[in-house]
Design goal:
Elements: E1 3-6, E2 16-22, E3 29-30, E4 35-40, E5 45-49, E6 54-58, E7 64-67, E8 71-76, H1 92-102, H2 115-124, H3 142-147, H4 167-170, H5 188-203, E9 206-214, H6 216-233, H7 240-253, E10 260-262, E11 265-267, E12 274-276, E13 278-280, E14 283-285, E15 288-289, H8 297-312, E16 326-330, E17 349-353, E18 356-363, E19 366-380, H9 386-401, H10 404-408
Parallel strand pairs: 12-16, 16-17
Antiparallel strand pairs: 1-8, 2-4, 2-7, 3-6, 4-5, 6-8, 9-19, 10-11, 12-15, 13-14, 17-19, 18-19
């Protein structure tokens, strides 16, 4: 008796997912625990394992949007792989139909593509002969398919006698370069990002205040102790830990920035779960550093690194990306000088960090050149007043320009 394969519940707020990639072929025998496919929600990508061993029957194509509980296939219990049918001479109909059905060579061919690679090749309209497989035994990987281009068609033979081109064609000048257009379906994660950012712009009274921070002293401190810090804690000392710690302190002093609106009520938090915006190949994700106010700089650095690596590999859990109270985004790593970040609703504030540039500054009446960073705080004016926002951002400036304040709590 066949066992139905259903989309499992992967979070309370998630009602729909997208089946992005089948990892097993239709009719293939799979063992219990083998990963059948990848499912993408608006939060993360989840792998779906086989609950029992058996022969797989797929009933849903890749790229299909599905509700929780939807049936995507079945497993017919049995032992071992199903017996292969004896090979026979293919008919003309089979020969002509096979390329159209698969769009790729057979499984025994060295250039056999993976399921993800086959999907990309079908979208591009390219065959295995157009792709140079770099995987094991020449197998075509997803990266191979993404970088491949369709072979140029052979030039058509010149006609013996051709009619003169219409006058309108003769007036069109020849243009150099290609003008290709590519159309791709938005991923569920990208659609969710677009929806949430639009909602944030439309549902909040968002305003941004700016300040500049002299990074000279914190950079000197980092330079002086970075080797000892790494030797003791086995982690590099970056700037994100300083800003995360500074934000945690400022949030405790200006609680409105750490609050959120829920109907007619304001929810204040006595803790700081600070989200760190991480750019991944699939889009922007915001995992949270829990209880940042109680962590040391070394603990913050380790947690940020752990979350960033999981985000890059698409392994972040729903718990790690939910429930934040404030967010930090660092556009400076890409060279941004200044920006107005959008609030990560339902939070009421987000800090934007930018690149560090040497600029002339006045110190004790003397003009010197110091590394300076522009910072931006976007906040919801419905809950955070101008005085609170400026006080919060200036407090961060004080803590970064004099890092000893973080240790002395002054």
């Amino acid at each position: 008796m066949s066992i139905e394969i259903k989309i499992p519940s992967i979070g309370e707020s998630i009602t729909e997912v997208t089946l992005t990639t089948w990892l097993k072929e239709d009719g293939e025998y799979v063992e219990e625990g083998d990963i059948l496919c990848e499912i993408e929600s608006d939060k993360a990508t989840v792998e779906l394992p086989a609950e029992e061993s058996g022969v797989l029957t797929r009933s849903v194509d890749e790229g299909t949007d599905l509700e929780i509980g939807a049936v995507i296939g079945s497993l017919a219990p049995g032992e071992g792989a199903p017996a292969k049918k004896e090979e026979s001479a293919p008919t003309k109909e089979a020969e002509s139909a096979a390329p159209k059905a698969s769009g790729a060579p057979s499984g025994g061919d060295k250039n056999y593509p993976s399921p993800a690679a086959r999907k990309i090749m079908d979208e591009k309209g390219i065959s295995a002969s157009d792709v140079n497989g770099t995987g094991k035994d020449g197998r075509i990987t997803k990266a191979d398919a993404m970088s491949a281009e369709k072979s140029a068609p052979a030039p058509a033979p010149a006609k013996e006698a051709s009619k003169p081109a219409p006058a309108i064609e003769a007036q069109v000048p020849s243009q150099g370069g290609e003008r290709g257009v590519r159309r791709e379906k938005m991923s569920r994660l990208r659609k969710t990002i677009a929806s949430r950012l639009t909602e944030a712009k439309n549902s909040t009274a968002m305003l941004t205040t700016f300040n500049e921070i002299d990074m000279h002293w914190v950079m000197d401190l980092r330079k002086k102790y970075k080797e000892q810090f790494k030797e003791k804690h086995d982690i590099g000392l970056g700037f994100m830990s300083f800003f995360t710690k500074a934000c945690a302190i400022a949030l405790s002093e200006v609680p409105g920035v750490n609050a959120m609106i829920d109907g007619d009520e304001i929810i204040y938090h006595d803790y700081a779960d600070i989200g760190i915006a991480v750019s991944t190949p699939k889009g922007l994700v915001v995992p949270n550093v829990r209880n940042a106010e109680s962590l040391s700089l070394a603990q913050i650095e380790k947690e940020i690194k752990r979350l960033a690596l999981k985000g890059r590999d698409g392994k972040l859990t729903l718990d790690e990306m939910s429930g934040g109270t404030f967010t930090i985004t660092n556009g400076g790593v890409f060279g941004s000088m200044l920006s107005t970040p959008i609030i990560n609703i339902p939070q009421s504030g987000i800090l934007g960090m930018h690149n560090i540039v040497e600029r002339p500054v006045a110190i004790n009446g003397q003009v010197v050149v110091h590394p300076v960073m522009y910072t931006a705080l976007s906040y919801d004016h419905r809950i955070v007043d101008g005085k609170e926002s400026v006080t919060f951002l200036y407090r961060i400036k004080e803590l970064i320009e004099d890092p000893a304040r973080m240790l002395l709590d002054v």
